[in-house]
Design a protein that fits this description.
about 425 residues, mainly beta, Immunoglobulin-like, 4 domains, 6-stranded mixed sheet, 2 helices
Length: about 425
């Protein structure tokens, strides 16, 4: 089942799903033969609510759990809803109407169980449950900066508690306050509960309210002072992994760092094709990537809310490529071309992390003896074939050992 889950082709890109990994002692209990008992929703049930809480039994020796949710099933997935790593044994998602299948496995540093699967249906009545939820009496709790906090000029991390029935959060920042504003520094509706902004020295007020389609909470407002930077530098957070220049095809990337000063929490910032900030109290965070391949930067900020001190790391680079390498494109000889040996076969790789290619030569639909041949360049000197009709193709291998699909065969004639 786990291989089946990993090889689903996602029809839509999904947002990063983040998990706070456990940072305690390494556990090596062999849990590979243990079973994860799925409790709710029960197998085959029909739900009248689109807000679904998934719950399963703890597995002794497990550090965290991986949950995947698809619709309508893993065998014929049209929508990939979630792929998350969790420390706790429950999580809540808001779904649409339809049939769903979900699976959970337990993991530690050395072992993992099989995936265990259950299915359920969300009925048409659930549509009414996702609208008109009155959140007007709810109160937004602001976590940081604390009220009347003072920070040095630079990045300021804004973070607040989420409300289960809010779809977005209206964040506003005014200078010096909302009573007599000289400047509205920021005003936007966010789907996340954290944001990092760079603020100049001055007095500010910031406020947040939750909103859905029909209701809004009241604003919760805090004040903030940003001061000129001082010459004394704070200790630097040390980034451990991924190392600078790291390249990967793996969807789950583990970020690790070390720091000796006391902080209340860290914020991991990832910048690239998608920019996101993640809050964690540990010095380790696992991030699952969607289809947003490309070059990224990452850095960490430590926040001491009591003393109003921020600590920063340097910035490192890494690259993520979604899935297998791209299929190489054959360039010469062209289809049906007549050639004289020796002849240089050429092709184009689709990604710069390809480290070698395999060249296949076929005669009468049979692979010629001595092929495939591995090459490091995007060309191969062909020689030693008798006159006749042949076909050729190429497959790429990247620096993670992943192979592309074999290119379509192209025919040529040796004179």
């Amino acid at each position: 089942m786990s291989s089946q889950l990993r090889n689903i082709l996602f029809p839509f890109g999904i947002a990063f799903l983040v998990i706070l990994s456990n940072c305690g002692d390494v556990l090596e209990d062999n849990i590979s033969n243990d079973e994860v008992f799925l409790r709710a929703p029960g197998n085959g049930v029909t739900l009248d609510s689109a807000t679904v809480t998934f719950w399963w039994d703890h597995v002794e020796g497990a550090i965290d759990y991986q949950i995947q949710v698809v619709s309508p099933s893993f065998d014929s997935a049209q929508y990939f809803i979630a792929d998350s790593f969790l420390v706790e044994n429950q999580v809540t998602f808001t779904l649409g109407v339809g049939e769903f299948e979900w699976a959970v496995r337990a993991l530690n540093n050395g072992y993992e169980t099989d995936f265990f699967t259950s299915s359920f249906t969300v009925s048409e009545e659930a549509v009414e449950d996702t609208t008109d939820v009155d959140i007007s009496a709810e109160t937004i709790v602001l976590n940081t900066p604390l009220d009347e906090a003072s920070f040095e000029e630079g990045n300021v991390i804004f973070w607040w508690e989420e409300i289960s029935d809010a779809n977005t959060y209206d964040l506003q920042i005014a200078r010096p306050n909302f009573t007599s504003p000289e400047e509205l520094v920021y005003d936007s509706a966010l789907e996340v509960s954290t944001l990092t902004l760079s603020l100049l020295a001055g007095e500010y007020e910031w406020r947040v309210r939750g909103a859905n389609d029909d209701f809004k909470t009241d604003y919760t407002t805090y004040s903030l002072i940003v001061t000129e930077p001082v010459s004394e530098e704070n200790p630097t957070i040390t980034l451990v992994s991924p190392v600078d220049g790291y390249r990967t095809n793996e969807q789950s990337v583990a970020f690790n760092w070390t720091f000796t000063e006391e902080v209340d929490f860290y914020v991991l910032r990832i910048s690239g094709p998608t920019d996101l900030d993640f809050v964690t109290e540990s010095e380790q965070l696992s991030v699952s990537f969607d289809a947003n391949s490309g070059d990224y930067e990452w850095s960490v900020t430590g926040v001491n809310s009591t003393d109003n001190i921020n600590y920063y790391s340097d910035t490192l680079n890494f690259s993520y490529t979604d899935g297998i390498p791209g299929t190489p494109e054959l360039t010469s000889p062209t289809a049906g071309e007549s050639i004289s040996l020796p002849f240089q076969l050429t092709w184009n790789r689709q990604l710069d992390n390809v480290v070698r290619d395999s060249v296949f030569i076929f005669g009468a639909d049979t692979l010629i003896t001595g092929f495939p041949v591995g090459v490091q360049a995007e060309n191969y000197l062909l020689q030693g074939l008798e006159s006749g009709d042949y076909e050729w193709s190429v497959k790429s291998i990247d620096n993670q050992g992943l192979e592309s699909l074999e290119s379509a065969k192209s025919g040529f004639t040796v004179q």
